[in-house]
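Record type: monomer structure entry
Structure origin: computed from sequence
Chain ID: A
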Amino acid sequence: MNKGREAPSLDDVLDFYLISSEETGTDTLAEMIKSYPQYEHDLRELSAFRKVEALISEPEYTEEQEATLQARGMSIVQNLLYEHRHNPVKGDEQREFSSLRDEIERQYEQAEVFYKRTDLSEGILWTLDDRQVLFESIPRMAIKRIAEALDNAFASIANHLRGEMQLEAAYYKAAAAPAATKCTFSDLVKMDDDLTPEQKAYWLSQPPMGSVEDRV
């Protein structure tokens, strides 16, 4: 009696994706999604993480740079307070949520409508949602557009993006867990192939939350 082949597990598919990409020297994401559509979400997550991990390395700061980062942290708090006072949402209500992706799926029949409203790509949104981007490098305008598109408070979105980096255990073997490093928003924009040149130019021109210009 012939039995059907047992479907591969998520771990097997993710391992196969990493191995095939290494062997071919190209990203085999599209091919893997076509072969294993049930794991599309996890494959895209892993692909986004690989891009960020390949781009960044663990930073080393001088005492002067550390002081600058602390000053930027204070400016971020000031920015959030300013936004809360001058740009309240309906009823000044902050709605809690677990994931930007879940909110997009809940509010939009087609996610592309959200990406068009915000001028942010799927890859950028997912990387932001997993908090793989340094918060102080994110432009205020990006947070504002996400908040408006999801009809939520600026502070609510900002608080979510300031959280700890989210990495699924299935993305890597415990013995070879990657360092918890983050990239900057501008680096993410520069390497994103889904943004148009005009969109890239716009986002690269926007001051980040930690900049002097953003406090003006």
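Annotation 1: Residues 63-215 form one domain.
Annotation 2: The chain has two domains: 10-55, 63-215.
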